[in-house]
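Case study.
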Amino acid sequence: MRACPLCSTLCTIVPLTLVGIGLFAFAPFDQQTKTAPVQTATKEWTVHDRTRPQPAPVTVAACCAAPSDAKVLFGGADTSALQSGEGACKWTVANGELCIASGTGSIQTKDSFGSCQLHIEWMVPETCDCKDQHGCNSGIFFMGRYELQILGSNPNKTYVDGMAGAMYGQYPPLVNACKPNGQWNMYDVVFNAPKFNSGGALERAGSMTVFFNGVLVQNNSQIKGATAHAAKAAYSAHETQLPISIQDHGDPLHFRNIWIRPLAD
Ligand code: MG
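After joint prediction, the assembly is written out as follows.
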């Protein structure tokens, strides 16, 4: 705190100013209008249209617990939102962490999702020996086919479009924000699902924006097609919503605090 030049009293000028700006920026113009979903459907609005639906209010939490309108996929104990094949999730839970049971296969969400905001935290145990693509590999497959790579990458040299924060085989991360093994990493992703026309042709490519430990590593990167290993990605038409899967690549990574907010297209 420091003395205020206007009133000669101690006050927190900067925080109060920021709060003021925040209140001004987010204050609803008309509390009587109805609220909207996370993302309103495409529509042309006039400037300052007072009938435009208000953004839905949410209760936010300390970093990085789920906000009030999120669906929790794993909060520390319950794995019922996840499954192995058609059955119960075979990965183990210990100390509030979801641990890959190597060899049991990838898991996927019971529910299907299209465009969404996803938060997930992951950790490579210190005992893991990362060598290139082996020892500490996993990944998040949006719609079961578009992989955001998870890989112990501090240190671990591999091809850059296969390191942590990469859209596998398509885009390296803008920077390497990975923490050393034994420490928790955090992804915050905005995934926009691709769109296909009724004939199955691609109408709009999918995209990902990714913050890795709070650092931007994918900036609206346009997805080139379903993830492929050592091959060019290509699209093939699919449903508008599909489960998200987390990869079992044979390595014992841990996960915690996984939540999702579906977005309207
Ligand atoms: Mg992977």
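Observations recorded in class. The chain is about 5% helix and 30% strand. The pocket of magnesium ion is lined by residues 137-139, 147, 149, 247, 249 (CB under 6 Å). We will return to this complex in the next lecture.
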